[in-house]
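Worked problem 6 (solution included).
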Amino acid sequence: MSYTYLKELVYEANMEIPREELAIVTFGNVSGIDRTAGVIAIKPSGVPYHRLKVEDIVIVDLDNVLVEGSMRPSSDTKTHTLLYKNFPSIGGVCHTHSTYAVAWAQAHRAIPNLGTTHADHLVSPVPVTEVMTDEMIQGDYEHETGNQILDLFTKEALSPEEVEMVLVACHGPFTWGKDPAKAVYNAIVLEEIAKMAYLTLQINPAVTRIKQSLIDKHFFRKHGKDAYYGQGC
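Solution. The predicted structure is:
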């Protein structure tokens, strides 16, 4: 079976990471899934973006077994596959080490909804996971990273279709979407939201969250049956 189309899709999404300055050298990775075939394509581990080629993209199944490729898949692969297994509507996952999003993750802080840019994309704060226990770190670390995200979404009753981004405490952001390109788009949005929130709190540390009426106006003009932003389908 040929996975050329999926590899090309995932390659292009990965190359957006350095273009958008979301990560440097080998940091970060994007994957995409073919649910019919039961496989994902993902960046190989430790390959700098300037050397990455379409044929380097690795294919694994949802049990993390190598299907196609001569390189080891990303070290974060188990996190990706766990998200695909538990969030059946998503088609792409992106992980970066973008500066401002990582800063919030390292601070163990959710990003509060302070303005309309944030509200255009999310009703809620950008959530942050609990800090991982030593037992989890010393066990199946990447699998447990995924479990941290799943536990948070269960505990907070969050929908992965409505909240397409998360901060893993001490680590960094993961985003997802209907395909790899949307997952990267959400990573770009998250980094900008993180930067804006940081600067806002530097200017006025006492600022409070945006009014609910403004959240509703900006979110629902872009989302849902009554949305009127953009040009439609």
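Discussion: The chain has a mean pLDDT of 95.
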